[in-house]
Amino acid sequence: xxxxxxxxxxxxxxxxxxxxxxxxxxxxxxxxxxxxxxxxxxxxxxxxxxxxxxxxxxxxxxxxxxxxxxxxxxxxxxxxxxxxxxxxxxxxxxxxxxxxxxxxxxxxxxxxxxxxxxxxxxxxxxxxxxxxxxxxxxxxxxxxxxxxxxxxxxxxxxxxxxxxxxxxxxxxxxxxxxxxxxxxxxxxxxxxxxxxxxxxxxxxxxxxxxxxxxxxxxxxxxxxxxxxxxxxxxxxxxxxxxxxxxxxxxxxxxxxxxxxxxxxxxxxxxxxxxxxxxxxxxxxxxxxxxxxxxxxxxxxxxxxxxxxxxxxxxxxxxxxxxxxxxxxxxxxxxxxxxxxxxxxxxxxxxxxxxxxxxxxxxxxxxxxxxxxxxxxxxxxxxxxxxxxxxx
Length: 391
Prior knowledge:
16 helices, Growth Hormone, Chain: A, mainly alpha
């Protein structure tokens, strides 16, 4: 590997995480300013998810044609454009229009970099890669909270967009370091024969693929719902002021960040499936603490614990993909996994918004508990299938 490549990859994932929680953190203030309802953020997230699904499914062709480095640099530039546009928007329909390039940029870089690191690096680097996403996602709400306190939510998006512009410049300058085809996996057998392309229908017939797709669907449904609606839950269900709630929303992402930093070391001793189980247990404990209406200290601990539990799950599933299903279909399957994961965000987070407006934001922990239960069932079924395949 080129000496400076891994830090550049980490920087790209910081850029991926920065805007992820910004909309949810700012929405309690944005919605009245734009004349939008509380649940309208669900429509915005749906548009973003549609873009990420589309670019995830196209990631194989884009990487094969342009290379991982160029796809990453262009994607970050696209999200930077969208964020600067958010800062200038004064109507909800403008946000919806700008959500299209934001979603397209996020999906392409996510699928491309996840596959690149899964194939070329050890498991701890996958955890640390997603730790970088957590740094970005933790910083987003904090930056937004400071901007809301000292100015407006528009300033928050302008600052985030400026950071993205700077990162896109660094990525563009790093393009000579990227050598997709000259960086074989250290354990891969030497072969110059290109792998045959499989259709999505053929991928679905591979043993274990439906189960891993359900896991991805549920994980991203849980993560997006937890992150997008934490501030709203704190404000509407717990009576916390909007500024404090925006900063508390970052607790979930701080939990992910710290958890993924630790997961990088723990993964040296535990296999991917054990890391996933550990995360699920921590999420269950965190949801239980959020569910108990016994003071702000338990709520804070619960959000941190849910984040810590989410930490190992996503990177462990991704890193296990080449081992479980083969490197020859790793990029195609990762793109498909990303697409299904974003469908989880597309469907389940907006659905909670509808339920919150109709019934109440207090459903938040119960909703998370249901998604977690389905994910656990799918993950254990996947483990059973993989044991049978290897026998």
